[in-house]
């Protein structure tokens, strides 16, 4: 039996639009038991709405990779999906599903693709290299595309901080959140974000959390997306008042993520839980990559 584990992700981190990503210790777990019959079982987040048919994103991705490489259909079997990642909330649920599907198919290939090749596949299918790379490699990543549209990353150990996530009940469509962004911005706003993103790399490499408030400041996407995320500014203000180093929109939202010391995180949880009707999750950055491995076939 094949076992696959993929972390949730948060992308952008304020100033790093489509560039910075970080894995979180919330997981999508998939098992695949080869056999003559095809079936999907789903537990956890999404079990009420995710497809149990061949158009399920994990299976669809696995089928695409396997058929492209081999010219043959994906082998049948029973898939069991268990997810801790809320759907449509800016925590990388689709990136995790795509990475899980790629790892599933890749594990069945006679000559598996490299992780770099899987990154190219994941980035194309997911559409956002920051989420895809963080899900595939874990940790804190900087992603960019070269002149040939190949995706590259630099990988860093993630900050040893608490991550507190406020998850509203409503979803936000990534497509809608991208449509409302302007095609052009001022030079001042571009410089502002470039400075802040450089601060992120300083903070992560030097473990200097004192600059995270400035590092996460943004003028390229968060303010434009506030109409889709009406709780955003209130959650920012509450988290910072409770002692967070930084508060950002996770991906395109609606989840808001606060970074804080482990000692300070309970104050943020208390502030958010008392004043907002939404799920509050406490987790940590996850340093480990997604992986697939064989396990005993125990039912």
Short description:
With 299 residues, the protein is an alpha+beta fold. 34% of the residues lie in helices and 25% in strands.
Task: Give the topology, please.
Blueprint: E1 2-11, E2 20-34, E3 39-44, H1 57-70, E4 77-83, H2 93-108, H3 115-126, H4 129-137, E5 140-145, E6 151-156, E7 162-167, H5 174-179, H6 187-206, H7 212-215, H8 232-241, E8 246-249, E9 256-260, H9 265-275, E10 279-283, E11 291-294
Parallel strand pairs: 3-4
Antiparallel strand pairs: 1-2, 1-11, 2-4, 2-5, 5-6, 7-9, 7-10, 8-9
Helix pairs in contact: 1-2, 2-3, 2-4, 3-4
Describe this structure in words.
By secondary structure, the chain is of the alpha+beta class. The chain has two domains: 2-157 and 286-294, 2-Layer Sandwich (Ribosomal Protein S5, domain 2), CATH 3.30.230; 162-283, Alpha-Beta Plaits. The protein is built from nine helices and eleven strands. It has helices at residues 57-70, 93-108, 115-126, 129-137, 174-179, 187-206, 212-215, 232-241, 265-275, and strands at 2-11, 20-34, 39-44, 77-83, 140-145, 151-156, 162-167, 246-249, 256-260, 279-283, 291-294. The strands form two sheets. Strands 1, 2, 3, 4, 5, 6 and 11 form a seven-stranded mixed β-sheet that branches. It has a four-stranded antiparallel β-sheet with strand order 8-9-7-10. β5 and β6 form a beta hairpin. The chain is globular. It starts with a strand and ends in a 5-residue tail after the last strand. The model has no long low-confidence stretch (mean pLDDT 94).
